[in-house]
Amino acid sequence: MAQNTLTVTDNRTDRTFTLPIEDGTVRAMDFRQMRNGEEDFGLMLYDPAFMNTASCRSSITYIDGDRGILEYRGYPIEVLAEKCTFLEVAYLILFGELPSAQQLDRWVYEITHRTMLNETTKKFMEGFRYDSHPMPMLVSTMAALSTVYPDARDVRDPQNRLLQMKRLIAKMPSMAAMSYRHNLGFPYVYPDNDLNYTENFMNMLWKMVEPKYAANPVLARALDILFILHADHEQNCSTNVMRSVGSAQADPYLAAASAASALSGPLHGGANEQVIRMLDEIGSTAAIPDYIRKIKDGHGKLMGFGHRVYKNHDPRAKIIKRTAMEVFGVTRQNPKLEIAMELERIALEDEYFVKRKLYPNVDFYSGLIYQAMGFKPEMFTVLFAIPRTVGWLAQWQELVQDTEQKIARPRQIYTGQRKRSFVPIAERAVDGEPKL
Ligand code: CMC
Fold first, then answer.
1. Structural domains counted in the chain
2. Which of 4, 51, 128, 434 falls 20 to 30 Å from 192 in CA-CA distance?
3. What pLDDT is attached to residue 253?
4. Residue pair 369/222 in contact by the 8 Å Cβ criterion
5. Which class for 203: exposed (0-12), middle (13-18), buried (19 or more C-beta within 10 A)?
6. Closest atom of ligand 1 to CA, residue 263
7. pLDDT band at 1 (very low <50, low <70, confident <90, very high)
8. Whose CA is nearest to atom 3 of ligand 1?
9. Which CATH number characterizes residue 253's domain?
10. Are both 287 and 367 inside the same structural domain?
11. Is residue 230 annotated as a catalytic residue, yes or no?
């Protein structure tokens, strides 16, 4: 009869071990008992880049990468993107259930009334160089919130955690908008509590001298949908950082700033900025075959393509493509759209991409929308960080409550030298620059 166990024979010792299989996994610690003698530490698992390691149990986001399925708390992303607002989805992600009308009103109020930045935070941001990239500005300011809210260090108290989560979700658009306006040399715009989350963000980005900012409803809804699509994505690189830093009981502002640092990388959230640069570099549909040939010859990657988990269409990319068309109905169509669509068509028919199951990911079309809305590419990853903060915080909250979790601390296979004899400085050979 089939059993939920794994039998392993250690051929070094001829001993056989039976390990339980639970939820399709075996426990790495069960291998520690496999020792090759008294002095041996025990068998470890080697998994660079966590290609096949589950680091936690989570009930927030479900992905089936082979079938292109993404769900938050069991609800398909397509349904949430069509029927909900971003703050409604944020509530779902954080608390596990969709809010009632009354709960949502309260939640929106709680967030809206925390959007203002302390004046010292504003002054801190004013200190950045006039042309600073908005993403490192945002990352640094997120960390700086830790100085404004020292009470955040008490991560064991659930009420205190909730307060800090509300603060950070509320202040992300304010910090993001300020980093944008600083880069352009415009004065900071204070939040307007009459507006919803995305409209208010647009107000802080784009209000000039008019007494009241009125957001274009199509653009505000498109931004809201993009925020929903980016809100969480289970154990991606930045979320893993959030959990890792959070596991040391650092406060949530510092942990989220660390996660945002990871997001800024071009292989992660920074890819949307790189997609636009790539489309600029390609320049015309005629140049696409040559560009693809270059990629296949090993010169760089097709930005916005491929995913560690999705080996099928990224469901977010499909929704973004549709949203892009709605946005282009009210803005000028982005001239790069034609290049992007042709690039996608050619790549999806090319054996190199087909064999490796490389499909457009969330970043492929999002930059085209952002650019049509008037954002510079430097802002794209900032626009990713605002909604992903909800995911980071939900995952952090789950981590803090998980009794199985401890400080994250992987093992290593040591490959360096041992027991070397010390050489006094005067006797060491001088031979140029140190090698990296
Ligand atoms: N263009 C060309 N070849 C690629 C690409 C690409 N975009 N992505 C993967 N490959 C190739 C890769 O060279 C490898 O080929 P081979 O087997 O011959 O060595 C094969 O496909 C498997 O790729 P991998 O590097 O083992 O895959 P990974 O899971 O480690 O990396 C990834 C995933 C997203 C980092 C990678 O696909 C990539 O660098 N894509 C471009 C950057 C990008 O769009 N990032 C955004 C990801 S989605 C949103 C987010 O996470 O923020």
1. 2
2. 128
3. 98
4. yes
5. buried
6. 52
7. confident
8. 301
9. 1.10.580.10
10. yes
11. no
Block residue for tokens 């941001």: 125
pTM metric for this prediction: 0.94
pLDDT at 431: 76
Q: What is the rounded distance in angstroms from the CA atom of residue 95 to the CA atom of residue 127?
A: 37
- For residues 56 and 109, give the distance between their C-alpha atoms in angstroms, rounded to a whole number: 33
Tell whether 56 is covered by a domain: no
**What are 301-315's pLDDT values in tens digits?**
999 999 999 988 889
Q: What values do phi and psi take at 265, rounded to 5?
A: -65, 145
Report the DSSP beta bridge partners of residue 64.
69
Token reading at 224 = 């809201």
Q: Which two tokens stand for residue 142?
A: 């997120």
How many helices and strands in the chain, by DSSP H and E? 17, 5
Token match 């507006």: residue?
195
| C-beta of residue 146 within 8 angstroms of C-beta of residue 152 | yes
Q: Are 302 and 282 spatial neighbours (Cβ–Cβ below 8 Å)?
A: no
Give residue-wise pLDDT tens across range 396-424: 999 999 999 999 999 999 999 999 999 99
Report the 10 Å Cβ neighbour count for 330.
13
Confirm whether 417 is domain-assigned. Answer: no
User: How far is Cα 234 from Cα 411, in angstroms, rounded to an integer?
Assistant: 23
Secondary structure E strands in 172-233:
none
Which parts of 45-143 are beta strand (E)? 61-64, 69-72, 75-76
pLDDT tens digits along 45-72: 999 999 999 999 999 999 999 999 999 9
Of all protein residues, the one whose alpha carbon is nearest to atom 20 of ligand 1 is: 356
Q: 329 and 393: one domain?
A: yes
Ligand 1 centroid to Cα of residue 304, in Å, is 9
Residue 137 vs residues 114, 125, 144, 172: alpha-carbon distances, Å: 20, 7, 10, 12
The range of the structural domain enclosing residue 233 comes to: 80-407
| CB-neighbour burial class of residue 158 (10 A; exposed 0-12, middle 13-18, buried 19+) | exposed
**Which residue, judged by its Cα, is nearest atom 21 of ligand 1?**
356
- Residue 40 a catalytic site member: no
Match 């949203």 to its residue by tokens: 323
Q: Token match 């009459």: residue?
A: 194
Please pick, among 268, 313, 350, 402, the residue that the annotation labels catalytic.
268
